[in-house]
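User: For a benchmark we're assembling, each entry needs the component sequences followed by a predicted structure for the full assembly. Here are entry 17's components. Please fill in the structure.
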Amino acid sequence: MSTLVSASGLSKSYGSVKALDNVNFEIQQGRIVGLIGPNGAGKTTALKAVLGLTAFDGQLEVLGLDPRRERHRIMQDVCFIADVAVLPKWLRVRQALDVVAGLHPKFDRARAEAFLARTTVRMDSKIGQLSKGMVTQLHLALVMAIEARLLVLDEPTLGLDIIFRKEFYTTLLNDYFDDNRTILVTTHQVEEIEHILTDVMFIDRGQLVLDESMDNIAERFVELSVRPDRAEEVRALGPLSEQEMFGRRVFLFENSDRDRLGDLGETRTPGIADLFVAKIKEHAA
Amino acid sequence: MSAMKTLIRRELWEHRAIVLAPAAFAALFIIVNLLAAAGVVKVQIDAGDVDLAGVVGSLDAVKAGALVQLGLALVAVWLNIVMVLVTVFYLTDSLYAERKDRSILFWKSLPVSDMTVVGSKLLTATVVIPAVTLVIFVVAGVCIYVITGLAVKFAGSGLVLSAGPAALAETVLFQLYALLVQSLWYLPIFGWLLLVSAWSRRTVLLWAVLPPVAVIVTERIAFGTRHFAMLLKERLIGVYPLAFTDDPARQQLIWQYEDEHADVNLEFSRGLLELLDPGRIAASPGLWAGILVAALFFAGAVWMRRYRDDS
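Assistant: Structure for entry 17:
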């Protein structure tokens, strides 16, 4: 298993605001990594650094190259969809295929056309005339036809209706992802991608507050739900967070003895969204 | 090479005025020419008392060639003006539009270096736009020659038809040379526009004009001199005096015929190319200094595109 991205001491400031503050992480081949954080946490800055779209301090290697100087080389093996609206409006669908075919040596035009044939996107349409969902389908068709090793998605389904959103990830998993591919994705809709992720990274105010595989998360974190009268007893064990749900008290524990908690109430693996809220609150404290 | 071809096709798709503006102008000239020719024919048919044959009769081969070149020169000058305007607007837009419509992230997702992309824009301004203009000029020139030639033929003289091809060919060569030296001479201005286009957040044209104006005003107030203003003037209009001969004898060849009619054995159309003086402009320090400055602006534009961070 090879390391695709490795960052150490990655930092970037906009004036006095630290968008990235000494961040360290690695991304291995064959993983689907979710980079999750509140607005302004530094998600997009981190992605931009990986893609060679912004200057930064510290060490960062993508496929063994420095993105600051070798963006155009990295882009041979890295694709990204930053936001659905970025395809140039004046371009026709056919011309978009021409452009990518002419500029990307690893683009398989027939594959992109086959994918588009399954959609309602027409070759002669101007991109400006397509609906947002159709633009995403086009962008996805372009990206899936490229033999890339790393795919970076920054809020790829923002502003799409639920049918397109669901289809987007289904297509990605069924028709694109395999052991040779790696996906790095940011999104607000954590629940939407939770089940496809193999790893998560939580980022808050420029710092990584969690970097863990989903397997380890199941071991490391436990959600315990108890009747209100036992709440005091549980609080004494030092939970990460507490909330009330349907008349029961729900606690989140990190690195705790699962069996012992099991005696107090029902335990299960927490959802990423709840875990995220708990970790961000902890980081804010 | 294929990447550069694709990038240039992209420029032509995005900036359709590169072809449409000069084409529209050329079409206008052709229509006017057609109306004039129809007028000549109509007069010939209707009015028996106008002695067109007399007018046409005074035509000789040299005059006929001159007639064709005079008409084409007018078209060439106007196409040149349109081209300069198109180029200025193209360049100010070239690195700004992709940031404004946020498609820059798409372009940057393709494995092409910033130097290649900025290079494709400079190449479009210096080579593609003049080439498009020249092709349109040739097409318009052929149309105008055929229309005028046939009309004069109808009026009684085949001289325009027979003198036309040589006259046209020489005018095209003349225009080719003019476009070439123009592109080289204006390189620093093109580079400057690229730089401002890559840098500016809005009102690119204003930002392109303001700094030089500020320098001129500051220099005037601080030192009471006008060196920068003169330098700029030289850059804007100095190319023609340098690119064409200042030798009065050679210049005379063209006009002499009109004055003295018979004594010059050199043909008018050969006189046109006598005006070209490539050696002089190639030896002028201004040309090479300009290219150096253009290289600096170009490097600045590449650097800007690499790290311009608008979000």
